[in-house]
Known about the structure:
The protein has helices at about 5-20, 55, 70-75, 80, 100-110, 125-130, 135-140, 145-190, 205-210, 225-235, 285-290, 315-330, 365-375; strands at about 30, 35-40, 195-200, 240-245, 250-260, 265, 270-275, 280-285, 295-300, 300-305, 310-315, 340, 350-355, 355-360, 390-395, 400-405.
Amino acid sequence: MDRAETITRNSVRDRAQRYSKSPDRIARVWDDSMDAVPIGKKRSSASERAPTEKTRTGGRIENPYRVRESMARAGKKHAAAQDMPRDGTSRQPRGRVRTDAEKARVKQSAQTQPRAGERPGHRSEHSTEIPRRFEDILREDTMSDTERVQAYQRAVRQKTFARLRRVGLAVLIGVVFLVCALVLVYKLAYVVNDITVTGASLYSPETILDAAGVEEGQNLYSFSSRVVQNRVTLHCPYVRSLHVDRQAPDTVYFAVTEDEATFSAYIYGELRALSPSLRVLDSVTEDEAAANGLIRLCLPAVNQAVAGRVIVFENERGARMIRDIAAAVLASPLSDRITAVDLTDAHTLRMVCDGQFLLNFGDTKDVAVKLKIASAVLQDSLFSTAVKAQIDLTATDETSVVLDDQLDLNW
């Protein structure tokens, strides 16, 4: 074996081993006899790598690795390697310089002539084993360093993308499996078998459950607590609030808080009972309102009045004023004696106490203080008789009383 062939073999082996250190490089070494030797495996001895009959007779199989650039980079140029023919002819004598015509003829013959041992148009078994994506790496004689780096980066990106795709697919399958398991447990394990209603005195438990729309056999979390409360308060107006308590795996508790009628008012021509917060309750008659001691309210224009909901007035500022006055009346010492309140005009607030005393408050300022003054005034013995009287409370520092048996107190 001459020096040029030795240089060729060593250069090919070194580069193949260097590329095989990366998982995206070729893990096999190809020598000029087209024998594949796995990396890390001991190479065969010299006798096993004896030249074939074709190489003895001068026929040379073309090496896929052109090493001319590699030898130039390693500083191993040799005149014999430069004059080595690729067309199977005999070597030119040393010192002989080829002409341009001979070089062109040799190059054309090397490009058109098939490799030794191959038929024209036939691809050997070894050539099909080289992956197509590594063809750019094998053609080192036409690739620059930048192109090699780019090829390596492309290979790394492709492998990273394939790994991420496998991981993503595994995660997706796991998530689907987990969701299916949770849905199965949700459908089979959490089923309502016991419903308990507490705190209801005006309505029966069956009425509350019918209004809530919750039945045994439903899923424990298939209904919303807010929706159930809205349904119950709409169909059962005296229910002020409904608390839903779920206890896994199959029990539901409904805690009912009921309201009481405190006021009454004509709304759209119908006398309706009202709660302390001015929630609309059911319809009542005059006798029922008087028997239950309901305070009659004369209200301004009403925009909306729905059973189980708070009255909506046309003037929001007036609505806040009305709620404040109602709260002050219920908190005053005269809450059990006041029978009617006129709220139609914010500048002429009037109240009827014990059915025979008219309290004129003027505007709606200091209503709580004026009620205390009226309570102190009514303790006088003057008001122990059945004579009707009008008490002026427009000024907190001075109070006047006018006895008038002709006062009209039936609003």
